[in-house]
Amino acid sequence: MTHAGRIAVVTGAGRGIGAQIAIELARRGATVVCADLQMPAATLLAIGSGAVGVAADVSEPAGWKTIATAAPGTVDIVVNNAAYYPNAPIDTLDFDTWRRTMAVNMDAHFLSAKQFLPGMRQQKWGRFVGISSNSVGLAIPGMSHYIASKMGIIGFMRGLANDVAADGITCNAVLPGLTDTPATAAMDDAQRRATWQGQAIQRFADPADVVGPVLFLTSDDAAFMTGQALVVDGGQYRVG
Ligand SMILES: NC(=O)c1ccc[n+]([C@@H]2O[C@H](COP(=O)([O-])OP(=O)(O)OC[C@H]3O[C@@H](n4cnc5c(N)ncnc54)[C@H](O)[C@@H]3O)[C@@H](O)[C@H]2O)c1
Questions:
Q1: Of 84, 85, 146, 237, which residue is the catalytic one?
Q2: Which family does it belong to (predicted)?
Q3: Which residues does a 6 A CB cutoff place in the pocket of ligand 1?
Q4: What would the pLDDT profile of 183-206 be if each residue is shown by its tens digit?
Q5: 178: CA distance to ligand 1 center in Å?
Q6: 169-176 and 77-80 as β-strands: parallel, antiparallel, unpaired?
Q7: How far apart are the C-alpha atoms of 119 and 123, rounded to whole Å?
Q8: Domain 7-229, CATH class in plain words
């Protein structure tokens, strides 16, 4: 029960990695506000009693007001996981797609900080985790907008960490590699193999693989760790 008594917000909690994070945070004792574009019914069912569901667009200030209203107290933990990731080579990438990518993948992080920092500062404890991607270090075509936004998440977590550390609040990014979710369901076996053959751990990632580092970063155990980018990809992309 590492997260007993905590109130956590997880965005994009309706499926994939976000659903697993929400379910495991709840299993560790947190009350989880599960946010997605539609009410995340399957996740709420998996968690059972105590789960809070909310339909909200995290790219909009109004979405964060809705999430805050649904939260049954001061929010301790925010896991920004929702993402927009259309493949579009730069020659066909249009400005609307670029703007939407930045709105969902980056604006949400800013808006969540504005919404929940006052409460966290008052109680001298808080955790922000931004789900980035190991694609920031890989040669993946057609994703310049997405990679820019995912690099932006790392930058925002680094910068935000400086502004909030005195109040016991930490901010870190988690960088999954390709993971078996609805987002990658269209990949065939050969494409999956091409990914995991570049990893030290020779298998395709499951959403559960990403959960442990998020649990750690949102716990008391990670109190002295902030402004970091944690790569969770079986050893495909190595930094440092
Ligand atoms: N799956 C992968 O291979 C992979 C790899 C690296 C990084 N990631 C990152 O992990 C995170 C989760 O990925 P996933 O594969 O589980 O994605 P997914 O598409 O399966 O789930 C994302 C969820 O976010 C929700 N969402 C999208 N826009 C939203 C908005 N504006 N407001 C609220 N909810 C919104 C969707 O409805 C969906 O339920 C994303 O940030 C993604 O970029 C995924």
A1: 146
A2: Belongs to the short-chain dehydrogenases/reductases (SDR) family.
A3: 11-12, 14-18, 35-37, 57-59, 81-85, 104, 131, 133, 176, 178-179, 181-184
A4: 999 999 999 999 999 999 999 999
A5: 12
A6: unpaired
A7: 6
A8: alpha beta
